[in-house]
Amino acid sequence: MKHLRTIFYLFTVVAIASCSKKSTTVSAPQIQVGKAISSATPLSGSIKGTMLANTTYTISGDVTINAGDTVLIQKGVKVNVTNGANFIVNGILISLGTKDAPVTITDPRYTKTPGSYTPTAAAAWNGGWGGIYCSTTCPLLVIKWTHLDFGGAALAAPPFTGPSTGDQYVIYWQNPNGLFVMEDSWMYQSPDDAVRFYGGYVNIMRNTLEKMGGTGGDGFNAKGGTVGNMAYNLIIGGATNGTKSANDPGTQATQTQIAMYNNTYVNDGFRNTGTYGARSGSIEVENNSRALAYNNLIVDCNFGVRIAGGNNVTAKVYLADTLAHTTGAILQTAYGYNFYYVDNVAQANQIVPTNIAQAVVTHPKSTDIPNMAAFLGSTYTFGFAYDGTSLVGKNNPMFVNFPLPQTSGNWITQASVDGYDFHLQSGSPAVGKATQSFQPITAGIKIDPNFGATSIPGPGKDIGCYQTDGTGNQH
Amino acid sequence: MLKLFTPILLLFIFSSSYSSTISGYVYDKNEKEQLVGATVQLEPGNLKVITSLNGKYTFNNVSPGKYILKVSYIGYENLQTAIEVKADDNLKQNFYLVSSTGLLKDVVISSKGNKESDKYAARIEQRADNLVNIVSANSISISPDITVANVMARVSGVSVERGNTGDGQYVIIRGMDPRYSTTLINGVKVPSPDNKQRYLPLDIFPADLVERIEVYKSLTPSMEGDASGGVVNMLMKTAPGGLRLEGNAGIGYSQLFSLRPFESYSTSTVNSKSPAEITGLGIPATISDFPYQNLITSPIKTPINSNFSLTIGDRFLDKKLGLIFSGTYQNTYAGNNTSRLVENATLTPAASPTSQMLQVFPDYLSRQYSSLTGRLGMISTVDYKFDANNYISLFGTYLQLNENRERYTNDLLLGDYSYHGYVGGFEQSFETETRTSKSSIYSLILSGNDKIAEPFSVDWILSSSDAKQELPDIAAFKTIQGINPNTSGTATSLTYTPLQVRPESRQWEHNTDKDLSGYINFHFKTSISKNKLDINFGGMYRRKKRDNFDNIYSLNPIVPADASYQEYVSIPASQFQLSGTGSDPLGNAASNPGVYTFNENVWAAYGEFKYFIGQRFDIIFGLRYENTEQSYVSSLPVYLPGKTADIPYDDFLPSINAKYALSAKANLRASYFKSILRPAYADLVPYADNTGFAQDNFPTEGNPNLKHSQIDNYDFRYEIFPNGLDQYMIGGFYKNIVNPIEYGVVTTGFAAGYTLSPANYGTAHNYGIEAVFRKYFGSIGISGNYTYTHSLINSSKIFQYRDPSDNSYHSINVNQPRPLQGQAANVANVSLLYKNAKNGIDAQLALVYTGERIDLLSLYKDLDNWERPTTNLDFSAQKQFNKHFTLYIKVNNILNTPYELIVKQPNQAYSGINKLPIQESPNYATIENDKYYARYLMGLKFKF
Hints:
By secondary structure, chain A is mainly beta.
C-alpha cells in the first residue's frame, strides 16, 4: 500500500515534469524607446528614453518625465534614489522587469530587515526615497516585475496640482482616463498608503506588499472614480487595510468599482494607531463605491471584509454603494467565498465586522469559510458583538511554510514574507473552494505584453493568491 | 443685570417744580441751530447751567429781582443780557451767539471749535460734499466701546465681523465684505498686519486716540478709488488751542472667568523666529529648538482688565506751534467657550435629483479660548502754523496689539458610532494650543498746506507706514484616547484607553507690509457768473512691499520599543523626535503657500470741479485715473504655473456728487462713482493650501488670473437736520459689480479634488435702502439706523445625487444664487441716550442687530454656513463730578449674545437617537455656538 502510494507520487512528479518540458520558452524582444539614458552621472530634472538593462542608475533629485515623453526601464535595472527624490510622471513610465531579472528602485541607505517589525523603531519607516507621482497628463504607468522598496518620503512640494506637501505615497495616480498596470511586483515598507489612486483604469495583479503603512495607511487605496482589478496579491503586515475602495471625493461621473479577488491578506490592520476602532483590517469598501470581494484568504487580520455603513448625521465614512445598477463594471457590490483563519478571540469577533467604531453593513455569508451565516444564526442583530471563541484556530489554510497558529502578538510584528511560503499545501481546505462565477473587469484595460496588462486572469479555483495549478502569484 | 441698572436708573429720575423760572434756547446766530453744552450763568447768585441736547436751559425757583444772564460757548463770542424776574413768572429768553471763528469749513486742518463733539460731527455730515457718517470722540467716549471696531458697529449701514474675543475686527459697510472698504489714518491709507488681506483689523485702534471717525460712502475724484463699500477715515487727536491734559484709568472684568479660570502661559521661551530662520534654511532643526514651556498653562482665577490713557497737548510760540501726545494701554483678559460640529468634506449623494445633500458631522469640538490682549497705542503730532494759510504737521503713530491666546480643545469623534445601545463618541482627543501674536502698525505722516497766492493753494502728504504681524511658535500638543462601551449586552459604562501622545505641530508665521506714499492736491478757487467754482487736481503715488513667511514643523512622539504608542504622562515628560529628512526637521517653508513677496505700485491723478450754483446747489464732478502694477514671487515650485506674476491695469474712475439744499436744514444728495476692488494678496498666489482639509476647512488656492472688480455705485439720499442734534436721513443705493471676487468651487486641473478658489463671478447687483434718525427730547435722545441690502450672485456648487430610477450616481456643477459672502440683508442700530448737563450724567443703551449672513461657503449646493442673526446690547454711563473728573462704567454684551453658525438643512440631529449638542431647531443644523459673556469696565476720566 505504502509503496503503491510512493509509485503514484513518482508517476505524478514525472508526469508534471514532462508536461512542463513540453512548453517552449521564447525570449521576449527587449524593447527600447528613444535614446539610452546615461548612467554616468546621477539623474535629476527632466529625463526621457530608456534605462538600459542590468545597469545601475542613481537619481539624486526629482526626475520629471514631461508630457508626451516616455521613460522605459529595461530588465535588471537598479535605480538608487537618494535625497528623497521622486519620479514626476507627466508622460509615460514603463518598468519592465522580468522574473529572472527584476527591476529594483530603492533607497541605497536601507536594507531589508527580517523578523519582528516596529515601524517607529525602523530606520526608514518615515520613507527613504519619495514616490512615483503621476499627473492627469500621464496616460500610462506600467510596473512589471519591479521592486519598489523604502519609498514614501514626504513630498517637499507638490509636483503638480493634486498632491500636497507632506504626502507619503509610493505611487500616486490621478488620471481618470489613464491606465495603470502593476504586475508581479514587490513593495517593501512605506509610511502611508502604498498606492493611492484617484480615478483611472487599473489592473493590480500578483504583487507582494510587505510592511505597508507605518502607523496608518492602506496597501492599495482606490479613491473617486477608479475602476479595475486587485487580484492575486499577497499583502502582509499592512498598517490598515490591504485593499480599499472609496468614491470620495466623487467628482467623477464614474464611481469607484474594484474587483478584489484571490488575494491573500496576512497580519493586516494592527498598526492604525492614529484612529481607534475599525477601518483597519483586510478589505474595506466604503464611501459610495462598488466592489466585488471574492475568494480572498484572510489570515490573522484585525477585521474581515468591511462593507461600510454610515448614517447621514455623524458618519465620517459613509455608506458603500450596495444598490443594483444597470450600467458599470460592477453592477452591484457582492462578496463571499472568503476564507478566514484567526488566532485570537478579538479577531474571531470581527470576522463579520461589528459596529465597533463605525457602522458596518457586511452580511454574514454562507459561502464564507467558516460559514458565518450559519454561525451567527438568524437571530443575530446586525452590527452587534458576538462570541467567536469557538472559531479560534479553526480552518487552518495549511500554508507551505508559515506556522499557524502564530505565537500571540506575532500577527502584530511579523509584517514581511521573509523565508515563509504562503502557497497552499495540497490538502488545504482553501483549495478548490473558490467561486468562478464572476468576471474580472476588462473595461479600459489594454492587453499588451509591454504597454498594458499582460492578461486579465479571472478568478482562480483555490482561495488566495497562490493557485495549486501554478497560476496566480508567481513570487 | 437689573441690580446693576437700578442705581443708575435712579440717578436718571430727577424732577423739580418751582414757581418762577427762566428758560430758553441758545442758538448759533448764522445757522439757527441750537447749541448744546453752552454755559448760561445767572448773576448775582452765580448759578450756572449747561444747555441740554436741544440747546435748552432752565433756571428754576428764581426769586423775583433784576439779573444778568451771561452765555458762553467755546468758539463763540460771549453774550449777556439784563432781565427782570417777577413773582410766579415764566420768563423766556433765547440767545443767538456769533461764531468767533467764522464758518468751520475744512475738516482736517481747522483747529478751533470742539472738534470732538457730536455737534461738530453732525455739522460736517450736513456740509460734506459726499455721503458721510461721522462719529465724534464724544460719542466714542460715552459709548460702551474701547476699540474703533466696536464703535463702527453703531454707524449707519455698518456691521462688524467679530474675532475670537467677541470684539469686532472688520467692518462690513452696507453689507459688502470687508475687502470692499478701506481704512485711512488722517486721510492716508495704511497697510494691514493681516497675513492675507489688505484691510485692517480695526480692533488694533484704541478708541481713545481718535478724535473723529468719518465713514464715507461715496467717493470724490480726490479719494482713492478702491473703496466701494466705504472709507473709514480715522482722524487722530490734533493739538488743542491751549494746554490740555486728559486721560482715564479703568479696570474691568470678563464674566466668563467667573465660570472658569483664565488659562495663561509663559511666552519667555517663545522664539521669535523659526529654527530654519535662525540656523539657515535647509539645516535640520533639533528637538531642543522646540521648548515645551510655552505649552504649560496655569489658571488665573479672577483676571482684572485694565485700561489707561493720557493725552497732553499745548500750543506754543504765539499759538503757532502745537504739540500733542496721546497714549493708551489696554490689558484685556477675554475669551469664549465654543461648541462646534465639524463638517465632513465628503458627503453621501442626495437621495434623488430633487433632494438635498446633507451635511454630516463626524466630530464634536468643545473649545475654551483664553486670550490676553495688550493694546498699546501712541500718537504724537507736531504742527506749525506759519500763518492762517500755511501750516505743516508731522504725525506719528505706533499701534500694537499683542495677543497671547490659549485654546483648549476636546474633540469627540462620533463617526456614526452606536454599539449595543451606546450612541456617542468612540475616540476623543485633547489639544492645548498656545498662540502668541504681535501685530503693529507704525506710521509717519508729514503734511502741509500752503496758500501760494490767492486763489491758489496746495496741500500735500508724505507718508511711510509699516504694518507687521508675527505669530511666533504656534504650538499644539495633542493626546488621544479610545472610548469603549463595556459590554456585549447593553452598554452601561465606558472604558477609556490610556492617553496617547500624538504628533505636535509648531508653526512660525510673520508678514510685513511697507507703504511709502505721497499725495499732492492743488486747489484753485474761481467763479463763473457769480457762482463759486473750486478746481482741484492732484495725484498720489504709493509703493507697497509685502513679505509673508510661514514655516511649520511636525514633531513625532518617540514610541517605546515595547509599545505601539507613547503613553501620556505630562507635557514636559512627553518625548518627541524629528523624523526623516523631509519637512519634519526642515520645516515646510520651502514649499508653503503662505510664503511670498508682493509688490504693488499705484499712482493716480485726478481733476475735479466743485461748482456752487446759487446758494442751494453744489456739484462735484471729475475724473480719476489709477495705474496699478502688481507682482508677486511665491514659493511655488518653478515647474508649476504661477510661481510669479506681473499684473498691470489702468482704471478711469469718473464720479459726480450733487447736493441740493432744499432748505437750510434739508439736503437732497445724489452721487455716482466708479470704483475698483484689488484682489487680496493671498487671492492671487496659486498655491494650494490644504491645511486643515477634512477638519473644517476645504483646500483653497489663489488665482493669478483674477481680474480686479469694477463697480458702478449710485447713491441717493435725503437728509434733514431739524434742530440741534436731531437728524433724519433716508437713502437708497445701487451697486453694479463687474467681476466680483468670491470663492467658489474649482477643480484646478486635478480631476479628483475640490478646491475653493477666488474667481470673478460675472456681474453682481447690490442695492438697498438706508435710514438714519436721531431725535432728542430734552435729556433723552433716541437714535437709530437701519439698512436693508439685497445682493445676488451666482456661484458654482457641487451637487451629487443618486437617481432612484436606476441607482445611478451623478456629480454635477450647478449655479446657485446667493447673497454676497458676509452680507447681511438687515442691519439695525438703536441707541437710547440720556444726557443731563445739570447733574453731569450721560448714559447710553445701545443695541445692534445684524441679520443672517453667509459666513463660509460650502463646496456643495445648499450647504453654506450661515451666521444666525445677532442682537448685541451694550450699556455705558458716566457721571461728571466737576470740570475735571468723570466716573464711567461700560458693560458690553449684556445679553451674552452667542455667535452661531447654521447649515440650512432638515436637522436630523435635533432629536432621536442621533441627537447632537447645541441643536435648537428641527429646520436647521446648528454647527457652532460661541459664548463670550458680558464684560464690565469702570474707571475715572480726568481733564485739565
